[in-house]
Amino acid sequence: MRGLFITFEGLDGSGKTTQIEMAARRLRRQGFSVLLAREPGGTRSGDEIRKIVLSSRTKRLDPRAEVLLYFASRAQNVAEVILPALDRGAIILCDRFTDSSRAYQGGGRQLPPHAVEDLDRIACQGLVPDRTILIDIAQRQSVVRARKRNTRTGRDESRFEKENAAFFARVRKAFLTIAKKDPRRVHVIDGNRTPEEIHEDIWNDLWDLIHSSGMRPR
Ligand code: TYD
């Protein structure tokens, strides 16, 4: 039986990573086979692309080059990791996917929407998430949390930190517009609460999805 492809989206610092880990732990305890994926990255070549797009040393990256790099990483992730895991019947929890390109490159960088959709068709082989969890936080909170995290980890992944408030406001608006247009797939979760409260909402949502798909633990 085909597995489930679930993506997590939101601004930097929205708490996606914590929530993915909490959901994965609980699903595994229930006996499901879970695979974690992330973008950009997730494969050897994707991790190399990640360094280029996130490093503050990457200067003057043209928005078109940027979107192509994200989709190059995604194409490899879909072909090498995600589709094979779906065929094995796994539940895939993916940290960001095409909605991030819609929001950051379409909304933030203001590339024409059709450019992102054309690239999605080429890179993703028709793959659309079964469910997208959008963790929504105010953009002011996003910048503060992301900066703290980059300082704490010492990783140079701060290129986006240099963007201004207007950029992140456009990104957030684009995410919410996607959710409005596709409410069956994209569920908005209020991220301005404790991790446990947010987890309970996500868990109930995923449990409904698993139940209605007829999936059973192995
Ligand atoms: P990520 O590693 O998920 O960072 P965080 O944990 O802070 O959310 O994503 C890295 C950055 O890449 C993030 O600022 C969003 C950006 N991004 C895009 O601009 N377009 C994309 O298609 C993706 C996947 C990410």
What does this structure look like?
- By secondary structure, the protein is α/β, with parallel strands linked by helices.
- The chain has helices at residues 16-29, 44-54, 63-87, 98-108, 113-124, 139-153, 165-181, 195-213, and strands at residues 4-10, 34-38, 91-95, 131-136, 186-190.
- Helix 3 runs parallel beside helix 5 (113-124) and helix 4 (98-108) packs across helix 7 (165-181).
- The longest helix is centred in the middle third of the chain and has 25 residues, at 63-87.
- It is globular, with a radius of gyration of 17 Å.
- The model has no long low-confidence stretch (mean pLDDT 94).
Low-confidence stretches: none
Outline type: globular
DSSP strand content: 5-15%
How far the N terminus sits from the C terminus, by CA atoms, comes to 11 Å
Instruction: Summarize the biggest pleated sheet.
Output: 5 strands, parallel
Number of strands: 5
Bound molecules: thymidine-5'-diphosphate
